[in-house]
Amino acid sequence: MSPGEGLAAADFRELTDALKYCVLLHDARTFDILWANRAACELLGWTVDELRPLKAPDMSKNARQYSRTLGHRWLGRAAQHGVSTTEWCYRARSGEEILTEAIAIRVELAERTAVMVQFRDIAEEKAVRRDLFRTEHRLRAFLGGLAEGIVVLDDADRVLFASESATRLLDDGLDGADFGTYCCDGRVPEREGRYRFAAPGATPRWYAATCQHIEIESDLRGRMLLFYDITDRVRAEERHRRDTQHLDHLARYNAMGDMAMAIAHEVSQPLSAAYNFVEGTRGRLGAGQESVLWGLDNAVRQIDRARRILASLRQYVGRLEQSEQLTDLNAIVRDCAYFVELRAQEHAVAVEFELAAEPLPVRCENVLIGQVVMNLAANAVDETARLPEAERTVTVTTRRTGDGRAELAVRDRGHGPPPDERVFEGVFTAKENGSGIGLALSHRIIARHGGTLDVHANEPRGSVFRFTLPAVPTHHPPTEP
User: Fold this and answer.
1) Number of structural domains, the chain?
2) Cβ-proximal residues to 440 (8 Å cutoff; 6+ apart), any chain
3) What is the pTM of this model?
4) How many other C-beta atoms lie within 10 A of the C-beta of residue 318?
């Protein structure tokens, strides 16, 4: 073998000895080792003279994939095609097994054709690669199992990166999308808070989101958004808020009942005394005092009417029990009718009661269901009071539905159902000084009893507020409230 043109033999040896890559030179026909550079000798632990007689089993790992047949096949591919690459595990003189990346190249020498094998130790590199692969696999598993979604947005709010959890929460098409199309409240989060997200056409859900700037060298830079679903928590808070309002209402209701009882008790005594005085005075007047007698008769009637009002009030507010009992829905309506008619008379509204001929047994808290009846009827009276007097009619009906439930409906001829779909959430009122809480409380009371409350358009005009309560077998006689 002669050195390259322009190089002395000594210079050529210095160059080959300086190589960090290991080099073995094989005969292209017999595959015998012809020569090795210093790096190969130092790595394998043999001199060139000791390497020449060695065969593949002498210097390769004792494993099937490193057999002599496979080694010859690899070198033969290089001899035939010019180059061939493989991973080969050499065994050093000390017994140490060295995994290498080996490249076999056909070389046309002056005296013969040879196959030059260049190889380097890749054991440490393979270990690092395995560690990186394991770390990447773990990170993917962690990110895929996160409840939080992670997206990185550029300055134009386009998604640069989306985690598997983010695509699972929102949409598979997040990568490269405009994140603004997923923000149901019209703004892309820039600070910590609660937001509603949804894929186009999907139902919005509530998410808690946090934002921070992220910059990973030149690979990823932008606003990182972390978010997780809190829809159940928001709904629970909303239910708690409604329950709190309901309890506040009951507290005010009970306080009102106590005050009404006290007023009824205190006023009934002077009314009774006034009634007795008027009766006594009328008995002492002679027959010629017709005008005085007429005035006293009317005074008696008014006092008697006031006594009946107080008696009805005491009967009604005196029943503030919180336990359910079996009763007739028709009886509850009749019990409320007096107060509904009083409200209607103030506005010259006619109230028609069309009650079912048969009993409608339900299990409920009488006072609460009575409160719903009066609330719906009072709303209908107030709505109808805006109409011309000839059209001021409210109809209250009860019936048994096809599935056996007890139903009450209040119909008016007003302006129709409220336009707000959240009419039973305490946000709607058509009254100048109303709060809208009455319908929300009515909805909660009916739902608490396992019933439904809804509103529909009345024909040809107006609204129908209707609630149903679960049926009770008719063989249980209802308790008269």
Assistant:
1) 4
2) 242, 245, 424, 425, 426
3) 0.39
4) 13
